[in-house]
Each structure stands twice: as C-alpha cells, then as structure tokens.
Amino acid sequence: xxxxxxxxxxxxxxxxxxxxxxxxxxxxxxxxxxxxxxxxxxxxxxxxxxxxxxxxxxxxxxxxxxxxxxxxxxxxxxxxxxxxxxxxxxxxxxxxxxxxxxxxxxxxxxxxxxxxxxxxxxxxxxxxxxxxxxxxxxxxxxxxxxxxxxxxxxxxxxxxxxxxxxxxxxxxxxxxxxxxxxxxxxxxxxxxxxxxxxxxxxxxxxxxxxxxxxxxxxxxxxxxxxxxxxxxxxxxxxxxxxxxxxxxxxxxxxxxxxxxxxxxxxxxxxxxxxxxxxxxxxxxxxxxxxxxxxxxxxxxxxxxxxxxxxxxxxxxxxxxxxxxxxxxxxxxxxxxxxxxxxxxxxxxxxxxxxxxxxxxxxxxxxxxxxxxxxxxxxxxxxxxxxxxxxxxxxxxxxxxxxxxxxxxxxxxxxxxxxxxxxxxxxxxxxxxxxxxxxxxxxxxxxxxxxxxxxxxxxxxxxxxxxxxxxxxxxxxxxxxxxxxxxxxxxxxxxxxxxxxxxxxxxxxxxxxxxxxxxxxxxxxxxxxxxxxxxxxxxxxxxxxxxxxxxxxxxxxxxxxxxxxxxxxxxxxxxxxxxxxxxxxxxxxxxxxxxxxxxxxxxxxxxxxxxxxxxxxxxxxxxxxxxxxxxxxxxxxxxxxxxxxxxx
Amino acid sequence: xxxxxxxxxxxxxxxxxxxxxxxxxxxxxxxxxxxxxxxxxxxxxxxxxxxxxxxxxxxxxxxxxxxxxxxxxxxxxxxxxxxxxxxxxxxxxxxxxxxxxxxxxxxxxxxxxxxxxxxxxxxxxxxxxxxxxxxxxxxxxxxxxxxxxxxxxxxxxxxxxxxxxxxxxxxxxxxxxxxxxxxxxxxxxxxxxxxxxxxxxxxxxxxxxxxxxxxxxxxxxxxxxxxxxxxxxxxxxxxxxxxxxxxxxxxxxxxxxxxxxxxxxxxxxxxxxxxxxxxxxxxxxxxxxxxxxxxxxxxxxxxxxxxxxxxxxxxxxxxxxxxxxxxxxxxxxxxxxxxxxxxxxxxxxxxxxxxxxxxxxxxxxxxxxxxxxxxxxxxxxxxxxxxxxxxxxxxxxxxxxxxxxxxxxxxxxxxxxxxxxxxxxxxxxxxxxxxxxxxxxxxxxxxxxxxxxxxxxxxxxxxxxxxxxxxxxxxxxxxxxxxxxxxxxxxxxxxxxxxxxxxxxxxxxxxxxxxxxxxxxxxxxxxxxxxxxxxxxxxxxxxxxxxxxxxxxxxxxxxxxxxxxxxxxxxxxxxxxxxxxxxxxxxxxxxxxxxxxxxxxxxxxxxxxxxxxxxxxxxxxxxxxxxxxxxxxxxxxxxxxxxxxxx
Lengths: 647, 647
Known about the structure:
Two copies of one chain form a homodimer.
Chain A: H1 2-8, H2 13-19, E1 34-35, E2 41-45, H3 46-69, H4 74-80, H5 94-110, H6 114-129, H7 158-174, H8 180-196, H9 210-221, H10 224-236, H11 269-286, H12 289-305, H13 337-354, H14 357-371, E3 389-390, E4 402-403, E5 414-415, H15 419-429, E6 436-438, E7 443-445, E8 450-456, E9 462-468, E10 475-481, E11 489-492, E12 501-505, E13 508-512, E14 516-519, E15 528-532, E16 538-540, E17 552-557, E18 560-565, E19 578-580, E20 587-589, E21 592-601, E22 615-626, E23 638-639, E24 642-643
Parallel strand pairs in A: 4-5, 7-11
Antiparallel strand pairs in A: 1-6, 2-8, 3-23, 6-7, 8-9, 9-10, 10-15, 11-14, 12-13, 12-15, 16-17, 17-18, 17-24, 18-22, 18-23, 19-21, 20-21, 21-22
Helix pairs in contact in A: 1-9, 3-5, 3-15, 4-6, 5-6, 5-7, 5-15, 7-8, 7-9, 9-10, 9-11, 10-11, 11-12, 11-13, 13-14
C-alpha cells in the first residue's frame, strides 16, 4: 500500500524520495508480488553479468558516440540556441537520447562510475537547456522553422519522446537521485497535464509510451495528476480519433477498439505492448480490475496465438504489426527487438500482479532469445528485426554504415530509426529488476543466474540469499542471512522443466511438478537449495495451426532456442537443403546440441508444384547453437525450424 | 520483318497505319511466332466471352463512374483551365484514365459501339486539352501550384503515366485508328525524346512502364527514335541513379543491377515485370540476343522459384516485392493483380519469341487464377492483392467505399491506388490477343475456349478455324476454311495434361506426350480435331523448399486451382480446423472437386510450442471450388493449401 498512499496524496519531494527506495522499472502499489529495488537484487556473475559489462563498457558508449556523431544530441543544443544547423534525424530521435539516459541511470544505480556520471550529467544539462519555459521539450516541434507543437499527433511522436524522458527520470528517482532530470520531467509532465489533462485537448499520441511513463512517474513522485493523465490517455484510445493513412488504419494505432474492449493485441506491436503496459499500471493504481483483466486476457491470447518460439512478436514487416492468430512465418518474422522488450515490460507487470509463473516463463524466453539476439557479441551492432529463418546470407555491415531499419540480415551499428540499441541498453542495465520479488513474507526467484537478493521483510527481518548458476545449468541457492523463523523462498520451475525438475535441500530431493516450488522450512546461514533442471536438448513442434512451420522441428535446450547455421554444416551443404532425422535424439554439446541431418536434393529449375521426388543423402551430424548468438561469426544463413524427414 | 523494316525507316503516317493491321498488344518484328490482330482472333463464347461481356457491360462503366465521381478525369479539365479545384488523388491517377482508354480502345476494336465510342472520344478530348504546347502531359506536375516537371523521378510516376498513355495510343493504332490519341502520344513521345533522349537528362523513372510503351509505339508508328529512347531507359537502369529511402533501396526500383546482368526478378514485382517486358521488346528490335537471353533466364528462374501455384508473384506486402527464392507464404501472398497481368505481358513476349509452350502454360495458369480472381462476379469490386489463404473473414465492402490498397480480405470497388481494376479491364478487352499465333506457314493455338482464328498465311492463302470448348472441358477445333495443301495447326498440350492428353482426328486417337501437338495433315472444311484433356481433379504438392506449404496439398482441376471456403464446410467447422485425407482421391464435381476432410482439434490457449496432441474427427466430404471465384458468396475464410493428415 506504500506507493498507493503516495499516489493519492499531494506531490511531495519527501514522499517522492521515500518511494524511490524500492522498485526497479516499476513499483505498483498493489499486487501479488512486489518488485525489489536496485540495491536489493544484484547480478554477480554469469551471462547476465557479462551482458551488463558489455552494456556498461561498450553499448552505452557506442550509442553515445553515434548520437554525438550524427548530431542527435546536438539537436538539444540547437533548440537551446548554442548550436547551429538544422535538426538531425527523424522526428523522434530525442527518444533515443532519453532511453540512453535511462540506461545510464540504471548503470549508475548498479555501481558508481565517475566518468559515466559526468557524461550523464553533461547530457542532462544539454537536455535541460532545450526545455521551453512552460515545460514543453522537443527538438523537432514548436520552435522557429519547425512545425507547431502537437500539429501531427499521428506521426510526430512528441508525447512518445516525452514518455521516454519521463521514464528516464523514473530510473533516476528509483536509483536514489531526485535531481535535474526528474525536475525537467516534472515541468514537462505538468505542461502535459495542462495541455492534455481534464479540460485540455482530448487527444492521444500516435505512438503510446506516455501512458506507461506518466503512471510510473506518478508512482515515483506521488503526484496523482500524472496518474490521472495516464488514465485519460488510456481511456481516450480506441475511439478512432487518430487520422489514418493509405497504409495505416485505426488498428495500427490501437485506436480501433477501447483498450478494455479488445480481445487480442493487434496493430503495430510495440505500440500495442507499450499501451498495454501503461493500461496495467493505470488499472492497478485506480483499482480498475476490469481493465486489468481485459489486458491480461488479451496478452494471454497473444502469447498463445501470436508469439514466436523465441518469445518474439510481430509477424508482419508491413506496419511492424501482429498478424492474425497463428500467422507466424519464420522467414518474415519481424519480431522487433523493441517489441520483445515491450513484452517483457508487460509480462513483468502481470507477473507482479498475479504471481502467475507463466509470465516469468515468458520473460525468460523473451530475454534470452528475442532480446539477447539483438546485440552482436562485441556490442557494436544490433538486430532491429529478428528473423527465425535467414535464406540468404547478407553482406557484413561496417561500423560506419547507417542502416535502414529492418531489412538487413546482419546486425547493423546504427539505424535511421534506431529505437532498438538504446532499448537494449536500458533493458540490460535494469535486467536485475526482473529477477526476484518479495511478497512481504518471503522472496520469489523468477529468473536464474548468479545474483544476490538482500531485502527486508515486512516484519523488519533481513533475508539475504545468493543464487549461483551458470544458467541454464543447475541452480544453487545459498542462504546468506535469514530470520530464525521459516521464510518462504519460492523458485519458479520453468515450463520446459515441469515434471522433470528436482529440488534438493539437505539431502532430500523432491520432484517439482508445479510451476512454483516453495521452500517453507526454516533457513539457516549456509543452507543450500539446489534446483536441478533437465538440460538435455529437446525437439519442439508447433501447434498445428502454425502453418509456417508444419512438418518442421525446432531444438531447444533449457530456456534457449537453438539455431542451425550454414557455417556449422559441411562444405557445400546449406540450411535450405537439409532435413532433420527425428529418430536421432539431439545430444547435449556444451551450449548447443548435436543433431542428425540428411542432405535433400530436388530439381530447382522447373515448375515447383509438380511431383518431383526429393532425394535424401547419407545422414551426418551437425551442431546447433543458441539462436541469440547467430551470425556472430559473419554473414550466414540460419534456420530455427528444420524440415523433419517424413514430416 | 514487316515491323522491323518500319522501325528502321523514318516516321510515316502511311507506314504506321499499315503496321496496325496485325498484332494485338504486341507486334514484334521477329520471333518464332507472330501475334494475330484483333480482327484475326475473336472470342465467341464460354468463360472468356462472359468475362468480356462483363468488361464491356459493367467494368468499364464502373471504372469510368468512379473516376468521374472522385475527380480523376476532371484533373485534365483543371489543367486545361476549364475546371477549378485542386488535383484529386495521388500523383499517378492519370495512368488509370489511360489504362481505361486502352481498355475502351480494345473493346471498340472487338465490335462497334456508338455509345462507348462517344465516351471514348469525349475523354480523349479532355486529355488532349491538358497537353502542354511542348507535348508534356501530366495533371500533377509542371503547372501553377504544382511541383516542377521531373522533379521527383523516384516517386512522381510521370513517365509511368506517359507510358500508359502511349500504350493506350498503341491500342488505338492496333485497332485501326490513327486519330487524336495517337497524335497526343506522338507529341508526348517526341517531347520525351527531347527531354530524355541522346543528349538529354540521363535519367529513368522510378516505375518502369515507359520502356514497354515506347518500344511498342515505335513498332506501331515506325518511328525509330521511340525505340531508341526505350533502349536508353532500359540500359540506364541498374546503376543506382534513383534515390533510395528508409524502406526502398536500389533493388526495389531494379536499379541495383543492369537488366542484362541480373539473375532473377527482384524488388517491386510490377516494376520488375514491366521493365522485363520492355527489355524483351528492346532486345528483339535491336537484335540484342544477350539481353533477351538474360531476361528469359531471369524469368524462368522466377517462375521456378518465386511463383505461386496460381501464377501470382510478389511474396511481400512490404514494398510489394518478390521474396527470396522459395519464400512463398500463402497467407501473406501479395500476388498483386497487376503483377499477374505484367507477368502475362512478359510470358506472351517470350512465347512469341521462343515458341516455348511453358510460357503459354504460365499465361493460362496466371490468367485463369491470378488475374480472374480479381474482379468480383458482378464486376463491381476487385482484389488488389490475392492471398492464397484467408484466415479471417473480412467485412463486406460497400460500393461507396474507397479502400486502402491491399489489406482488405474482400474485393473493394475502388482504391486510393487503383491500378488493378483498369488493368483488369484492358486485359479482358485484349484477351483474345494471347490465344493464338501464326508462324506464316500455319497457326498455333495456345489458349483454349470458344473462339475463331481467321488469318492469311504467308503464301496468301486463308485459314479459318473455329475452336469450341467450354474450357477446361474437351476442346474441339473445327476447320472452317483451309488451303488445299497441308497447313500445320499446333495445339499446346498443357503441362498438367502431358502424357494424359489425347488428340482425335477422323477416328484416329493419339496420346500427346509433347508440349505441342501439331496436326500436319491436309485439312478440309468441316474437319474436327478433338483435344481430350484429363479433367479429374488432382492433388498438387509443392517443392520441398517452399516451407510455407510443407505438409499441405492443393487441389487442381485442369488449369484451375481450387480453394476451400468456410461456406462449403458443415456448420461450426472452418478451414483452419480441417485436415485433408490424402488417401481419398478428389472427385470431379462440375466446376470443382469433392475432397475428404477431418476436423482437427487442438488446445489454442496454451503456449503453442509444446507437444499437444491434435485430435482428428470423423471424415466428411466437402466441395472445393475454383480459386478465382472465392468470396463471391460473401465474406469467407479460404485455403488453397490444406494440411494433409499424416503430413
């Protein structure tokens, strides 16, 4: 009830700083579980530590370098009158600066870094200088030679940019600093409330984001007007007020049906997911259980019918949209990195509200496959769209090449629409926020890796535990400090391990058959809880309505989707000319799996719909590796789904 | 050598009118075969007669009505200064007026029609009044308040519109009239030669069309400068001179590789096919066999690897582009009607050059499935894109609704980009032009239906035959008039009938095992040649590299692709929940086939990539009907490819 009280009180700097003590990306005032703050969960090793090191050491600098070099940060200087020239980039490049500020705030929250701190403050000052006296802040609109403020709500992305600024401010507050950026965000949010609040323009932005930002900023600052404005934006949507175009109808903008009346996520995937996340926040804080149930139902249907094996969503390149139910082509999977991140945001909100482990499963699957596939191993290039089937090896991009946004088969260093790299940066920096929760009485471990949880329970007692795992191998939970009374520690049993996972405590091994295994016994310092997961690779088949992969099989290993690349096949054989032997169970091989294949030959220069028997060659074995790592060895063709001999 | 001589002579009204005697849409000066003119092939009954009646009686009026109503024809009056208001529609709506003028010219060529003639002349006069003194003619560019001429070659579509005007003039010449529209076209073509010819702007238009138009206009008028300009436009392409955008790269415009160096058709499908057709015309008239061979090779590869079962091409909605080899999703088949028509144009050119029956097969398949699916049965609505799999039944459109261009599941009466209805109109009006040829010594029948061929052979002798067929049932060829010496009459044996077709003459029946069956014997008046085709419906399976339809089967009957629609299934069962019984051979049923299906049930609200056994119900039978007729009974879901039980 902590934040709930704050939201319903008048704004107070004191209350605001109080509410920053807990909560990572979100801090809802109610729900089955409560997020832990940046000081309470710390990643200490393994894959996620390596990713965070890459983020802090390379990705943030890479993004900063590009945005300085091509003038996106200088756009603020231009508005401030201290730089000349015209606006660089498309209308919404401000948002990339803000997402990077959010990433930097979370990084600074993880551990002090004087150099990063100075850079952070430097950029914030440049942003501050561009803020108009009435709080408005945008480098593409409202100044001399620019279009008027809010003159293009469909495409201008003004409130979208504002939302990202406000989310960056939330990150700053949640990492313990109520300083310049939160002050900028307050002035901006106050301006927005005047402009779009009760009695103001009854309008919405073409790209949702302001909803989720304002709701969280309301939570972080204790200012109820911000939440109220978020609520208004959610409620106003779905009434066809946004102008449509030749290609983008009301559905594209989620402006076809009110949020609470929709049946499934549709239209532009990132828009739909950001909006849903904001709607959950609004529903939670206003006690609107009907709205909450509506979004949950829509999202469950989306997971069941409109999601790729990787957790990626968005089946259409055209309009970056969801397709119909079960329309999930591998080769045209758009599965935008930002949509995957947005789905993690939504999954997390619903996990915290409901405690339903399905959402933690979805976060695991999405982070490890659909998000981590984006950055190249060296952190200097990114996927925007994430295909599950690459038929033609692309050419390698250079570090100087500004790419189009989604068609490249290779990761690109930067994009004209460059939403994904900065979104990856803020997600990596705040990843620990998605790992564990408390319910006041105990702690719940949702994601695995090497990290520590150190929190105070409602009764004031401390519990500190250390989780050790080069996940997805076995997980060891070591108790560092615990009250004398029994404190429930819950472990999510991943859906892929259900019925095969074991939990061992003090020599007693139990088969885990439910999606959550709770250790209820009293814990002592040094106690070890071991979660043993079935790590042998496994074949996965798709629902029969997913036509695109009928007769094909994927291979998964723990939470990782594997992929077959040309570079792992014998010379002269490519991924388009092999079939998988279904009678040969895939064999564990360090981070991947060995499968048995046969080369398939069929004439390719005749009419392709006449009976032409394909010939199969002698079987051979090949290694499949984690999907997230594909194309890190150069241009390659790739398949997640492989035709199975005999269907 | 007839037209070849003309092209190499200086322009002459007399020569031009001489050259209109023969040739429908094209009249190349060399090639294995020669097209027949509008007076030489006449459709007399059956499907094609019904389609031409629909065209003359409904479609032409429908298009005219829409273009008058929304001001597209009045755009010419505005430029002429006799109407006020601003330009209606997008930049290239002139082209729709021209394509309709082409359709009207072919219709008038088929048979006199005083009302249509008056309408035709009326529109031509309005077009004439909008022509600038120097020959330039466009309603979106170059006048007060408009952008300058040729200031947006990538997207302005100026030369694209000019090309369609010139093609309309070719139709007028080929139907025996060297009057106002050919005169307008001459002035325009002369202007273009000055502007873009040798020593002029070394530029190309973003949308090819001018190439094929100028080459044919050169043939029709005998003016070599027009052919020369067509050649320049073909040769200039592929050197990256067109500016690219965030979404459209050089490949989109076929500006990535010179035409003669490309390996396959790629980029925007209509652009690629119009360009290829123009390149064939240029290659034929300039003796450039290397260019001809290059286009033929590209097209054969496109047929083998980038074509749908219907003959439709263009696998991507995004950019209306070809996909990669074998990337042919049913549910996202763009298969634009205009691309199908453009492929008929190219197939016809290559058929005439090579005599290779594969091209006639492709014309048959494409016309009967990918083109004829476009118009609704009543001729008042059209498909723009032609999916092979409709997962969700769309809402019915009304006759007042101006649609977006490609996303509707139902046919729409008109589009903001309305290229397809007028393209259908000109194709139906000129359809007979694709049916038969002569090689000077005899005649070749490529398409079947009820029509007459009446032509004079090189030796001056007349041959007249009547073809009777409610195709695709048996075909009867009746000799009406023939020389006393043997005249070879060749019948194409459709690829789908090879080895099963029989030809019966005077009681002697022969199995046809080659793609062309030539009757060499002397023919007498009243002689009957009967072609008996195997009309039982057949299962078709796709090449194993076409992932999208693996484990699925289509059903074809003769040249017709069949489709399964919800409305033909028992109440409560839809096309997404059935499997095809492969052990039950489809049974002929008038225009379709009876197949055996089972209902398939599988949970749809869980994670869709976990083993969940599907249950199959009791078998039942249902009718599949011609794909071209689908959704004529109201909104429906539909599948061409049906999952096969047991893969």
